[in-house]
Amino acid sequence: MEQMTEQGIQIEEALDNIQKLVENIETVIRGKRTQIQFILTALLAKGHILMEDNPGTGKTVMAKTLAQSISGRTNEGGVNFKRIQFTPDLLPMDLIGSHIFDDVKKEFIFKKGPLFCNVLLADEINRASPKVQSALLECMAEHQITMGETTYPLEKMFFTIATQNPVEMEGTYPLPAAQLDRFFIKIIFGYVDEETELEIYNNYLGIANNLEHIRQVLSMEEILFLQNEAERVFIHAEIVKAVRNIIWDTRRHSDIVLGASTRSGITFLKCLKAFALVNGRTFVTEDDLQKITPAVLDHRLIYRNKDAKAKGLASILNKEMDRLSKLKLS
Asked: Which of 62, 202, 253, 329 is the most exposed, having the fewest neighbouring CB atoms within 10 Å of its CB?
């Protein structure tokens, strides 16, 4: 009984911590509650997130605010934050690091690059060449970096927040499918509504001051605890079956050329659990499935054309939601 009470207290603390983090971010980022929830979902699912939109919509500020909320301005919580501005002349060694000659030891030593951190902001990732983008593949999927014959493990918590401009914009390179698959979630950041934008204009100096003095509300240990709690969230067998059905339907739908992989399905389940926790629950609902499916799967699929992209995944999801509604799980 005491153990159950202690566990209940821990869960309450976890949910309170998530709410504190959301509210802290919202002192800078206004009118983006849904996007904030998706970003925290990727973090608690031990994954990575890709944010796409035009310049000036707040993607970079969002990433910096989150990082500062869990690392502080002087890394007091042990969370190491690095930012890489991706440009066409960037090289893989600028990310991974390189061997330099040590005059004292009279040998080459490995100098670690910015990828050896806890929170990485990969800003405008699609402005670098595919060769540079591929440098992220191993570290995002396996939490390690191989240099020559030596493999270096990354930190226990490694979270990539990548921003990209729309691929139609000049000077961008489309991310390859293998790279996109490493991102648990992709969101369109979007513009705020008219009322929120007016509020931002009237108080832009105050918001800038909030960013300058954003406080640390969670430590790395607390983030790791939240990640472990996310794994323990209950998911009904029928919702697991729904995930399987959706994944399989993407492979045989006439509008979809390349469907989702088994790894996508595992990522889907992790995100469902984390999304439930972010929303203050220890169990997954059908509503979670409906809200998160496009963000988790859409960027992993290749469609026949734009019309197929608009309706392909939606038709699959609607079919599965109809099946679940008849079961009345709740």
From this structure: 202
In the three-class reduction of DSSP (H, G, I as helix; E, B as strand; rest coil), residue 54 is classed as coil
| CB of 165 closer than 8 Å to CB of 55 | yes
Q: Which domain holds residue 218?
A: 2-232
> What's the pLDDT at 233?
94
- Of 155, 150, 138, 139, nearest to 109 by C-alpha is 150
Mean pLDDT of 134-149: 83
Total number of domains in the chain: 2
Q: Cβ–Cβ contacts within 10 Å for residue 82, how many?
A: 16
Cα Rg of the chain (Å, integer)? 21
Q: Final residue of a domain: which of 184, 213, 232?
A: 232
Helix H segments across 80-202?
93-96, 130-133, 137-142, 177-180, 194-202
| Confidence tier at 218 by pLDDT (50, 70, 90) | confident
Cα-based angle 253, 257, 263 (whole degrees, multiple of 5): 85
CA–CA gap between residue 88 and residue 307 (Å, rounded): 32
pLDDT in tens, 31-43: 888 999 999 999 9
Backbone angles phi, psi at 280, to 5 degrees: 85, 25
